[in-house]
Each structure stands twice: as C-alpha cells, then as structure tokens.
Amino acid sequence: MFSSILFKSLPRRTFSQARSFATKKLLLLSLDWKRPKDPPMSLGQASLFSHLKENNIPVLAKSYAVNDPSFSTDSVAKFIINNCNQNTDLGMGAYVWNERPLLSILSSLKKFQFPGRIILGGPQISYLRKSGLLEKFYAEAHVFIRGYAEDALVKLMQAQKIEPISGVHYANTPDDGSSTVLNPQTLSSPLLNGIVTPQPFMRVETKRGCLYRCAYCQHSGSNPLVEFPLSRVIKEVQWITAHPVINDIAVIDPTFNVGNSYLLVLKEFAKQKFSGKISFQCKAERVTGEFLDAVESLNTYAKTTLEFGLQTIHKKEARAILRSNQINKIKEVFLETKRRNINTEISIIYGLPNQTLESFRQTILFCNECGIKAIRAFPLLLLRGTILYNRKEELALKESNDLIPCVVESPSFTYSHWREMEKIAKVLEDSYKARIRNC
Ligand code: SF4
C-alpha cells in the first residue's frame, strides 16, 4: 500500500530509475573540511564505507577537502560523471561547511543528466524536518536519509523496489520527518576490518548522540545516546595499541564521560599502556574523582587532554542556549585537573544571545583564574534545525555572509564589538596553537 502511494507520487524521472534497482553501485563522496593532520578518510565516511562493504554493496568512496585551495566543484562533478552508468547511485553528506559546494555539484549533475539516484544525508538533511523543505533546498536529490545513515543506505541499495525504510524520505512523497534508529550491534568497526589503516593521528568513537539539549548544537537531544558494544571498543583500543605508529587519538564522542563504559575504556587504554596523546570531550559537571583517577592512571604512559565546553559563565547567556552551567562545580573541576597536572582545554563561544564584549572578557578571565592556559573561542553558528536556528528572527541574530555563516550582531553587541571578540579569539587561538606545537 505504502509503496504504491510512493510510486504514484514519484516524478516520472525517479519512477523510471526505480525500475532498475538491481545490482546498483554506489559512489560515496565526502566533502570534508580538513585539518592538516586529518586522516585521508573521515571516520563518518569510513563507517559508512565499512558497513556497505560488509553488506557486499559495490561502492566507490572518495573524499575531497572543500577548504583545499585546489578544490573545485567541477572536478567533483567530472569525477562523478566519469564513474557512473545507469546503475550508479550517488551518496553525499550535507554539512554546514559544504552547503554551497554541494549545491553547485547538484546543479552540475542536473546539467550533465546524472542517470542514477542522488541520496543525501548528514546534519543539514537530518534536522530539516518540515515537510517539503528538503525538496525546496535540494531539488535535484531523489532520496534523503535523516539520522545515522549506515543501515538505511544499505537497505536502500539492497531494495529491489521503492519501499519504506526508517529515516528515509523519497523526494516528492509524503514526509513523516522520521529519523533512522541506530543499532550499534549491527555496525562493524572500520578500524578492525581494515577500512581505516593505522596512521599517526586517528579519530575513534565509543558512542554517538548526547543527553544534553544545548540550543546551538546539532547533537542536542534529537539523537539519543547510543554506546557501541564494549567488546568492539576494547578490541579497537587493543588494535590501536598494537600499532605504535598511532600516537595521537581524538575520541570524538560528543560527551565522553556519560553512559556505562567510559571508565572501562580509560582503564583499557591504561592497561594496554597507550603512550601517545589522547583527547576526550567531557562535561565538567559529570567529572568524578574516580574518572580523574582513571585519567591519572592512563597518564602513567599517555598524555591525556580533557576538553570542556564552557561557552559562558553568565547565567543570562547560558539560559539562552539552554545550558545550566554549574559554575562552582566547573571551577572545582578545573582546579582539580590543574592540581593533578591533567592537560585541560576549554572552549567558549562568542556571539551568544545576551552576550557583550565585556561579558565575553569576563568568561576568559574566569578560565584564567582557574589556571586554564588552553582556551579556544569559536563564533556562534546557527546550525540547521537547532533551537537557536529556529529562534534567529525572534532573537534578532544577524549572520555574516561567509561560506560558514556565523552570528556577528545582536541586540546585545554591535558588529564592531563582535570584531573585537573575533580579535581576542584569534589571540587565544594563536597562543593555543603555539602550546600545541611545543607539546
Ligand atoms: S554542546 Fe555538548 S553537551 Fe551540549 S548538546 Fe552538544 S554535545 Fe551535548
């Protein structure tokens, strides 16, 4: 019943493609924002690639860096056209940093009459829930996946006809706004199955999603916390420590110190005598003595960095972004990490609702008073689907016209005050980079 509704409402072009789904190949393209030490393939792309391979889907994966001066959308479109036939689909992730290049590639593919289905996923898709908006933003795409895409992509590629798949929306059909449900038991590890090869710097994940609801963050609330099986994570730790070339690990869990397994993960790294650098993004209010003991023990061989998002010390600003920062507890944790000689980094945001130049300075002063040397200040981005994104007009937040737009003016700060904050952020960043170089 559902399928026949879909078939009736699909545009003619999509319908004709739907008849030849068998033995499809997928071109899996990733348009990344790369930093110098990044591995050639992002962990997200590697996880998708790994799951497709495990399920015997023919796939060709390629990654581009949109911030590389030599990057051109024409060369991406050319690559796609040169590597496709009637049985090729294209999968791409939509992120805030690749929105413009992605749209340009989509319009080139229309010009070149790309013959297969264009499947889009990623945060820019996942958080666009209002019916009709995906088609409006990405008119050339045929299928959208909201949420973690591994399982949905495999099912889409295996389906012999258009069929309902959780989290999948077919263009120009009724849209229920639903997201995929991740079953971490079904995902193989791209580290353990050879998709990711050992290299000096690597990203790993032990969980996805977050318990908190910060108003500017795309992890906020809509993705429930999902932990990978401990047996998988333990094997990954053992794999990492068995490859001494790996000496710098970033654990990318949105908040590492929540859930059931984080202490065991720390203990396994310590047991395996990991001796490189390792960083974890943590929530200060959840830090316990037992956690810091485990970090200290890990530091017998390793050099651990705990990264904390503070954003602001001011109640009015914190309320606007739905953070209930417990400043006394946070201060206590920072003083304790200093006492225990644990590398600690704090990130803060400039451009927040209710913020002023002075209040921004006070937040930095607080970090200094807590003995924190590594402070990073990031501009506020209004990421699609977040609470702040939806309140942009109401809060009178004005954005820049950059490739990645950020908030540069609001009722509480002028553009020239924002420029001052930007300058301060740059000084902090230069000092942060100098510290990293000397570590
Ligand atoms: S900012 Fe951090 S704590 Fe807040 S929702 Fe995002 S990941 Fe969770």
List keywords for this structure.
single chain, 16 strands, disordered N terminus, 36% helix, 439 residues, globular, six-stranded mixed sheet, six-stranded parallel sheet, alpha/beta, binds iron/sulfur cluster
Query: How many β-strand stretches?
Result: 16
Bound molecules: iron/sulfur cluster
Largest sheet: 6 strands, mixed
Principal-axis shape? globular
Rg, Å, rounded: 23 Å
Structural class: alpha/beta
Helix content: 25-40%
Summed up, the helix count is 16
SSE layout:
Elements: H1 2-9, H2 12-18, E1 25-32, H3 43-54, E2 59-65, H4 73-82, E3 88-93, H5 99-111, E4 118-121, H6 123-126, H7 133-137, E5 143-145, H8 150-158, E6 168-170, E7 201-204, E8 207-208, E9 226-227, H9 230-241, E10 248-251, H10 262-271, E11 277-282, H11 289-298, E12 303-311, H12 315-320, H13 327-339, E13 343-350, H14 357-369, E14 374-379, H15 387-390, E15 398-399, E16 407-409, H16 415-438
Parallel strand pairs: 1-2, 1-3, 3-4, 4-5, 7-10, 10-11, 11-12, 12-13, 13-14
Antiparallel strand pairs: 5-6, 8-9, 15-16
Helix pairs in contact: 3-8, 4-5, 9-10, 10-11
The structure holds iron/sulfur cluster.
